[in-house]
Amino acid sequence: MPTFIPDKLTRVIAEAFAQTGVPADAATAVAEHLVDAELCGVRSHGVIRVPQYVEAIEAGKIAPDATLSTVSETESTAVLDGHHGFGQVMARGAMDIALDKAEGSGVAAVTLVNCSHTGRLGSYTTRAAARNMVGIMMVNAGGHGQWVAPYGGTAGRLATNPLSIAVPVGDGDPIMLDIATSVAPEGKVRTAHTAGNALPQGWLIDHRGAPSTHPADLYGPPRGALLPFGGHKGFGLAMIIDALAGGLSGAGCCVDPDAPDAGDTDGVFMLAINVAVFRAAPDFERQVRRMIAHVKTSPPAPGFDAVLTPGELEARSRQSQCEQGVMIDEATWQAIRPTLERIGVDLEPDMNA
Predict the structure, then answer these.
(1) H helices of 82-226, where?
(2) Residues in the chain with pLDDT < 50?
(3) How many angstroms separate the CA atoms of 289 and 283, rounded?
(4) In sequence order, which ranges of the chain are alpha helices (DSSP H)?
(5) pLDDT digits over 314-349, tens only?
(6) In this structure, are residues 340 and 347 in contact, taking their beta carbons and an 8 Å threshold?
(7) Is the CB of residue 340 less than 8 Å from the CB of residue 50?
(8) Is the dihedral of CA 289, 290, 294, 295 positive or negative?
(9) In 58-198, where do the E strands start and end?
(10) Top CATH class, 1-64+323-353
(11) Which DSSP symbol is given to 49?
(12) Distances from the Cα of 3 to the Cαs of 30, 42, 58, 156, in angstroms?
């Protein structure tokens, strides 16, 4: 398996974006985000996205030099426009605005529209936790990417509508939930499809509504659909996120069954909560750490070595790969190499695991 030193991989991916006209600071921000997703083991949001983003720039769907602007604001809110820039750049800026406002107001909410694919949501909510705040983020696809069937239905009518919440614990990694409201994000199906792997049972139905383990059945034609996690629970949460992220931001909700798979914008809703306004931060963090310790005293179930709290698996993966190198599966490596070679960027593995 091709393995790379993280800093080198980040530098080369940034160079690839720079070659397509992305300013250096934005190119670095996007590269850092993609490599960090790889480090966390979230490969569906990692370097496999490089060809997608390069093609979007070349097609004029991403404005590489766009800057974030404020449409309107109050002391504790902001309505933001990303002007079709990189989602990673715009969402990072939006979260920082929410956090700055929450420093004074205690709680701040922002919406963001006209930004491309925002990537791994946990990257943004953990920025809040690093500042001793709770970060909450919801994203829809602006009414596009309707991969997910409603509970009791067989055809896609909603996007995967992810949600992330990060809670600070003081020293150490935060509790960090980062989930799609479908059983799995479309990106994981894409990754399996690229690698030629079957899917687990319960992720997907084909166009007839029959269970399937074949990634190609999602894409058709005719198209199948992903299932919401937990049946009506994931379905209900997906609709709420579509209303808040798509409706409040103005990006749009899922209303057109013929909407294309990918639009030009994500709709984003963010909330930052300043813990210190409610409770002395050390006291709050102590309570959360005690809860974590209590939960982890549960004896592990068969097939498990230990109880892992939300975000712990990603943190372990990051630590391991920072030490041993970022491992890119062969199918992903072969998928991104032609794009890198076409734009004149040289990237060779540092080793093969």
Answers:
(1) 87-105, 122-130, 186-195, 216-219
(2) none
(3) 10
(4) 6-19, 24-39, 50-58, 87-105, 122-130, 186-195, 216-219, 232-241, 275-278, 281-295, 312-324, 330-342
(5) 999 999 999 999 999 888 899 999 999 999 998 888
(6) yes
(7) yes
(8) negative
(9) 69-73, 77-85, 107-115, 133-140, 163-167, 175-179
(10) mainly alpha
(11) G
(12) 20, 16, 28, 37
**Cα separation values, 292 from 286, 289, 311, 320, Å:** 10, 5, 12, 22
> Contacts by 274-277 with C-beta closer than 8 Å and gap 24+?
274/102, 274/103, 274/105, 274/106, 274/107, 274/132, 274/133, 275/132, 275/133, 275/134, 275/168, 276/132, 277/106, 277/107
Domain spans, the chain: 1-64+323-353, 66-182+228-295
pTM, entire model: 0.94
Under CATH, what is the fold of the domain 66-182+228-295? Ribosomal Protein S8; Chain: A, domain 1 (3.30.1370)
Token code pair at residue 318 = 């990051």
Chain-centroid distance, C-alpha 85:
16
